[in-house]
């Protein structure tokens, strides 16, 4: 936990409960339907699962007036800083509307204008997570009494606002970057659909069935490019179940072990030669992985045993596009049976066009990775800057 010497001498130490009114919410009885509202009726009620966006304006559940009266739920005004302090610790949010919360969330209302709510949003996780580590050593957990007793070293109101402005600016850039990443990922789904139903001509242009109808033909799967074939998946990419490898039998090495969630460790020998395409068979189903090294696929996966002259990276895209997880739902069995998916008919372009399609998708993926790296860099920078600003190691100009 931070000590007094960690802070500037002009920052005033005060108990958190002295500078803020801390209110804990409540949950109406689940046995009483009259306490829970439907649709947009009633009042928004925040649970930890709602604590994702910085500004909370929507909740998964809403409670009625009777639910409020018959529980410990307390009204929280818009602009109030919220923090989870049970189960999931230190998840932050700001009420974007008037709302109520459950008992795992604390609302912090400044008692004077000397305390800035936006500064609290950034400052609270620092002292709470530090205090939580100390409490855990003592075998204790946080509650309202302990929250009230935590020591807050208070900068001037001006310095609080400047610290909050700096960190808010970084948050805004991170949020915009995350929004761009989400948009690019959504665009990829549309891109895959177009590429795997219309394809690219020799000039790398997306074919248009309306402008050039003669470039397409009828097939059991609808209109497809004339050069394409319709084949069963099993003769396009033959899938094979992976191999058991208990943890106690694994030996130190650099051969990746693939499970249904991707790389699950390393071993000193492989079972399948590169390149490889692997998908989850049980557990996490539908994720598809590519490797250009020899590998060991676990028995929770299916791997492509035979590519039948097709490009491995194209087969990966094809399996992603097929969304193999939907076939487990269709059978009601929580595992993917290769014998069930092998007969599925798929459309297949020639290898040269497969290469062109892969190039387009990889360029799009590269942009996504670039934005993800930028977001991760900003997040790391913010973490260091938070510590420096919130302990006064770096002072803002007054």
Rounded radius of gyration (Å): 28 Å
Distance between the termini: 28 Å
Q: Can you tell me the residue ranges where pLDDT is under 50 for at least 5 consecutive residues?
A: none
* Fraction in beta strands: 15-25%
What would you give as the CATH superfamily of the largest domain?
Answer: DNA methylase specificity domains
Shape: elongated
Question: How many separate domains make up the residues?
Answer: 2
What portion of residues is helical? 25-40%
Biggest pleated sheet: 5 strands, mixed
Number of strands: 22
CATH class of the largest domain: Alpha Beta
Describe it.
Helices cover 35% and strands 21% of the residues. By secondary structure, it is α+β, with helices and mostly antiparallel strands. The chain folds into two domains: 4-154, Adenine-n6-DNA-methyltransferase TaqI, Chain A, domain 2 (Alpha-Beta Complex), CATH 3.90.220.20; 188-366, Adenine-n6-DNA-methyltransferase TaqI, Chain A, domain 2 (Alpha-Beta Complex). The strands form seven sheets. Strands 2-10-7-8-4 form a five-stranded mixed sheet. The chain has a four-stranded mixed sheet with strand order 5-3-9-6. The chain has a four-stranded antiparallel sheet with strand order 15-21-18-19, with helices on one face. A hairpin with a 7-residue loop joins strand 18 and strand 19. 27% of the residues are buried.
